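DOMAIN: structural biology
WANTED: fold as tokens
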Amino acid sequence: MTLTEKKIGDRLYPRPVRFFKQIGSTNDVTSEWLKHGGESGSIVVADEQVSGRGRLGRVWHTPAGTALIVSVILRPRSEDLSQITMLGALAISDTIRNWGIQHVGIKWPNDVQINGLKVSGILPEVVWENEQLVGVVLGMGINVRIDFTGTELMNSAVSIEPVLGRPIDRLDLLEDVLKRIDYWFARLGQDELFDAWKKQLVTIGQHVRLQSAGYEVAGLAQAVDKDGALLIRRADGLVERVIAGDIALG
């Protein structure tokens, strides 16, 4: 189904919705909406995103009609900010699993995988004003029908439709993801959310190599703490706590 603001608005009423056929970044537009009073749960959806942001400042282009691209306004307590990434990953992982797809997991901290291949990424961005928390923009991209054949990502990324073996309606996917976001947002700050996220992590117990801004650490991914940081035991026995970075197994 072709996405339109009317179709999305009718299905999700009374949730506030803004839709763009093409956009630079849904997170940018949503951040401005948040600053000007956008209520929690409001969403910005795009059919095509030409300059979306990934981790470490990467730029991502998502072709029209191939993915679900959405940013959600959330207004959590400041003490619960560390669980927003967990919330987003869980909502997507839950939805995909509920659709009957097996071998779904979360690669620390925020990539959702099917059979070890990335199907979705999450980018939360916190908005402050005069040291006061305004809210959070939770950006999500889910590969629906992107064809990675013959690309540099063919061995690391996957879309939902080829795994399911049938076409899916992105509006159905959006509705289900938002239901899970609402579910977990109501449990923000609780052990239930952290425990569910931790249970779905595929990184724990693996030997990993992590890079972040010129820094590198390798060792055993031993555990995660309540703030979502990864604890890596190096070969010399020291345990390092890392909060972000690119991680590879081995």
User: Anything to note?
Assistant: The chain has two domains: 5-200, 207-249.
